[in-house]
Design brief:
There is one protein chain. The chain is an alpha+beta fold. The protein is built from 22 helices and 22 strands. The strands form 6 sheets. It has a 7-stranded mixed beta sheet with strand order 3-2-1-4-7-6-5. Helix 5 (63-77) runs parallel beside helix 6. The chain is globular and about 90 Å long. 41% of the residues are buried.
Length: 749
């Protein structure tokens, strides 16, 4: 009988009565719901809901019944008006319900939408709890949107107001109650909408790009509070979709010559509009990440950052398919990143560098002078506002400090500091070939962990002849480390281990080769030689007496962003090893958008460190001439070298500890990935866990920066076949261990 009842229910649902298309749209907008939200609740595409509201298509079961139920509930709340509404103020709000965390809000379920409607109806029917009743409790505006009218064509007010949910950034700073950014799009009806974080949608009255900039600064309430006391609030970010580009007279895609130049021509009509309205562009012009501003007057800062995804502003290597997401989802991805890292200022590399400056602004306000006035002064612990010269050994090829070198001169280790990540491999031993698997482990946020607690130079270097090495003094040291023998090294305070040095990479060179004479090293590398039990006698050094832990705040911010996002994906920091491996399996599929944020955070770390030694980027540069990046106080190759040095040493220390305890040696090392031969497919098949406890000082499974995760497993036969195919006994298998795909021979570059 139940089957018959189900059939009857399905038949009724298939003919569920629906209001006319125009009424469907009125009911949705009257409750502050967007098409994206309804589509998410009913688990259909945005275009499907749009078709229902335009009358082009009709819903089918089972969605039809749920859709009818939603509309019935909304019709009780918002009866059809008995008289035409005022033509200049139609009641079409532009907000919808925000979750307690606006940067990470999900679309409401159909049931949640109905419950919200029922709650509002109950409140309206109960005079004791109604906001209009004397002595009534506060309304639910803290967690639900207020219904407002859309502005008329002459109004320049935002189309909606939102009471900020408690505990959100918007709740603590009313200047930025709508979040750090907005994605501007044009809907099917030609209405310009700004999709903000937390599901908020604003009407945009601007008819031109200059008026959009003006609206953003005056009325949109977008931005982000400063990250440091002496710093500046983040400028609002406006992301323009292709439809918005067309609306404001900009090309949807750049031509080849514009793409190469990184900007549209100075004579473009939109740039002329900006000039006429006294807006300025930075020197990089109007490109994928354009900054539009007016010179600041006092504390009044007027600047808007534009991001144009269709102009390749969001590099697919780090942002995946973010540029192809619908506006609300695009706002979510960028909003989570902005709330946890900072509002993007350009590429992930640019943002990584800007984060350093935001946490350590170059100047601060002084104490009041005799007249009670404050002045700008150097902010202690920052890199200041003026660049400093690097040491000659730290200068990359082509630097002005090296302009007197003979042409085509190749600097060797005794002339050039060369601290880079590992790229080392070796042939497998006979014993290793008898095992079945090659297992790769990868250090989480390795370079961020290398920056944590690291003392780096703040000011200019001082040249010292025949110095006494000081492990606490950051700098570059010319010293001979060829006498360090890895076959007998200290692995503890009073413990020495005998190892097979032929199976280990040298800690002193990126290629793992033993040094043959004096070479320049950063402080962490020389300090490790001392830690291994060997004396060092530097020949000369460039040391920095003004120093500090400049990168600690930067590390903490990025670590917290990474851990919070991984926790959202179901990977917590306190999982047991087996549970951690299980949680990591397929974590990206749980929420692909948050997985994109994880990739962007990682790229921010590596890119930010890379920017510390940015090389010339065209611009007609010639060797021996300065290039643009040298004018930045954040052009600091010594800091980059110190972080890479410490990261490589941290990894080598774990490798040595593991070898001394287990007798196992790595097959290959690439940057932060290490490959071992093992009898099983899991890292637990070779990592020495005892009663759930890892080897002290060795590899430990976990999500925290510095701990390791499973990178990939292939068979030993795969490794041997690949090396034989390319006739490369030392092919770096760590490069391909993740999925086993080898596209070309490894030439080491």
């Amino acid at each position: 009988m139940s089957e018959l009842f189900d059939a009857v229910d399905a038949l009724v649902a298939s003919r569920a009565t629906l209001p006319p298309p125009a009424e469907r749209k009125r009911l949705r907008t009257a409750h502050g719901l967007t098409i994206d939200e309804v589509a998410g609740a009913l688990k259909v595409r945005r275009a499907t809901v749009s078709g229902w509201e335009s009358g082009k298509t009709e819903p089918r079961p089972p969605e039809r019944d749920a859709y009818a139920r939603l509309l019935d509930q909304l019709a009780e709340l918002y009866p059809a008006p008995s008289a035409p509404e005022e033509p200049d103020a139609p009641t079409v709000p532009a907000t919808f319900t925000a979750s307690p965390n606006p940067a990470e809000a999900q679309a409401l379920s159909a049931g949640a939408a109905v419950e919200a409607a029922a709650a509002e109806r109950t409140a309206a029917e109960n005079p004791q709890t109604s906001p209009a009743a004397p002595g009534a409790a506060a309304p639910e505006a803290a967690t639900r949107p207020a219904r407002t009218t859309r502005p008329s064509s002459t109004s320049r007010r935002p189309g909606a107001k939102k009471a900020a949910p408690a505990g959100t950034p918007g709740g603590t700073d009313p200047r930025f109650e709508n979040g750090p950014l907005a994605v501007v799009d044009v809907d099917a009806d030609g209405q310009v909408l700004a999709y903000c974080t937390g599901g908020l949608v604003l009407d945009v009255p601007a008819k031109s790009l200059p008026s959009l900039v003006d609206w953003t600064l005056r009325e949109a309430k977008l931005g982000q509070p400063k990250l440091s006391g002496p710093g500046k609030d983040a400028d609002p970010l406006i992301v323009l979709t292709p439809s918005a580009l067309e609306r404001y007279g900009l090309p949807v895609a750049l031509k080849d010559e514009e793409r190469l130049a990184g900007r549209i021509p100075e004579g473009h009509k939109v740039i002329k509009q900006l000039v006429r309205t006294e807006w300025k562009l930075t020197k990089r012009g109007f490109g994928p990440w354009a900054r539009i501003y007016r010179p600041a007057t006092g504390s009044d800062r007027q600047c808007v950052q534009l991001c144009i995804p269709s102009w390749n502003a969001l590099d697919t290597r780090h942002w995946g398919e973010t540029a192809q997401l619908p506006p609300a989802e695009l706002a979510r991805v960028l909003g989570v990143y902005a709330s946890r890292v900072m509002t993007p200022r350009g590429s992930t590399a640019v943002t990584g560098l800007e984060l350093m400056t935001a946490l350590h602004p170059p100047t601060r306000a002084s104490e009041p002078d005799a007249d009670g006035k404050r002045h700008s002064e150097h902010n202690p612990g920052s890199l200041g506002k003026d660049p400093v010269d690097c040491a000659p050994c730290e200068a990359p090829d082509g630097h002005p400090l090296l302009k007197d070198l003979p042409r085509f001169h190749v600097r060797g280790p005794a002339e050039k500091l060369f601290e880079e990540a590992y790229d080392w491999a070796r042939p497998m031993t006979d014993a290793e070939c008898t095992l079945r698997h090659l297992v790769g482990i990868d250090v989480n946020m390795a370079f961020a962990a290398g920056a944590n607690g690291l003392t780096v130079g703040i000011g200019a270097p001082t040249h010292v002849k025949a110095p006494v090495f000081d492990a606490k003094l950051p700098g570059s040291w010319l010293v001979n480390l060829s006498h360090v023998d890895l076959s007998r090294v200290k692995v503890g305070k009073d413990t020495r281990a005998e190892l097979d040095a032929s199976l280990l990479p040298s800690p002193f060179t990126p290629k793992g080769e033993r040094p043959e004479g004096p070479a320049w090293y950063a402080t962490p590398t020389v300090a490790y030689a001392v830690e291994l039990g060997y004396d060092v006698t530097p020949i000369e050094a460039y040391v920095r007496y003004e120093n500090g832990r400049y990168l600690d705040g930067w590390y903490n911010r990025l670590r917290d962003a990474y851990l919070a996002t991984m926790a959202d994906l179901g990977v917590d920091a306190d999982l047991e090893p087996a549970d951690f491996l299980a949680a990591m399996d397929g974590y990206r599929g749980r929420d692909p958008q948050l997985a994109i944020v994880v990739s962007a955070v990682k790229a921010t770390v590596k890119g930010g460190l890379g920017k510390l030694r940015e090389r010339p980027r065209g611009e007609g540069w010639r060797p021996g001439e300065p290039w643009r990046a040298l004018s930045r106080p954040t052009w600091r190759p010594d800091i980059r070298a110190a972080v890479i040095s410490r990261t490589r040493i941290n990894l080598h220390r774990k490798i040595v500890k593991h070898a001394s305890f287990t007798g196992q040696y790595p097959i290959a090392v690439l940057s932060d990935c290490v490959v071992y031969a093992a009898g099983g497919e899991s890292p637990l098949d070779f990592l020495p866990y005892r009663e759930g406890k890892p080897l002290p000082g060795g590899f430990k499974l976990g999500i925290n920066p510095g701990l390791v995760k499973h990178e990939g497993t292939q068979s030993v036969l795969w490794g041997e076949e690949v090396r034989e195919r390319f006739n490369a006994p030392e092919l770096n298998l760590a490069r391909y261990i993740k999925d086993g795909t080898v596209t070309d021979v490894d030439n080491g570059e």
